[in-house]
From TrEMBL:
Keywords: ATP-binding, Kinase, Nucleotide biosynthesis, Nucleotide-binding, Transferase. It catalyses: dTMP + ATP = dTDP + ADP. Phosphorylation of dTMP to form dTDP in both de novo and salvage pathways of dTTP synthesis. GO terms for biological process: dTDP biosynthetic process; dTTP biosynthetic process; dUDP biosynthetic process. ATP binds at G15, G16, D17, G18, A19, G20, K21, S22. This is Thymidylate kinase. It comes from Sanguibacter keddieii (strain ATCC 51767 / DSM 10542 / NCFB 3025 / ST-74). The gene is tmk. The keyword Electron transport does not apply. Residues 13-199 form the Thymidylate kinase-like domain. InterPro entries: P-loop_NTPase, Thymidylate_kin-like_dom, Thymidylate_kin_CS, Thymidylate_kinase. It holds the Pfam family Thymidylate_kin. Belongs to the thymidylate kinase family.
Amino acid sequence: MSADEQSGYFISFEGGDGAGKSTQSRLLGEWLEQVTGRRVVWTREPGGTELGLVLRQAVLHGDHVDPRTEALLYATDRAHHVASLVRPALERGDVVITDRYLDSSIAYQAGGRTLPVEEIEQLSTWATEGLLPHATVLLDIDPLVGTRRLDAAPDRLERAGDEFHRRTRQAYLERAAQDPARWVVVDASGTVDAIHREIRSAVAERLGLTLPAEA
């Protein structure tokens, strides 16, 4: 079942580390709560459920795993996340905003790890039963700039190297170009307020919302 067949709104945020996804997803959710009156559910991948927290620890902070195992761990988290949290919230009519979704696997495991993109896409689609967001916001930033913004010890993916992150960024941009009706590509080097205004305008258009006069 697609997001369009459910009564809620489903929005994902994508981009490299340090792009500002947490800040912008929070701001967008607060704004959507005001203009729609709907409950907003913020979540993330991996780690949006109790099982997801266990898988997050394994895939980002545990021992080395090979690329295929990594892809399967992400797919496991995503399948459980959608079945137990995302889809029920959409069926209630909530707004679901997730920090990363299946496009991250295409970018990181296919683009960064260079696994076959068709296989990763098929795995991700199967795990989610084809559920896609109404809108996906890509906060695009030079990986070197994003890395300098991080203030915590790097995880396994953050330590993967400059070339890995360049491939990941390119995979994101190519994927966004293939589906402009769903994707919103935003330059993440701007100010927080300017980025937020651009995101909410583009997301409102994709959700068919009328912007308040003061916006």
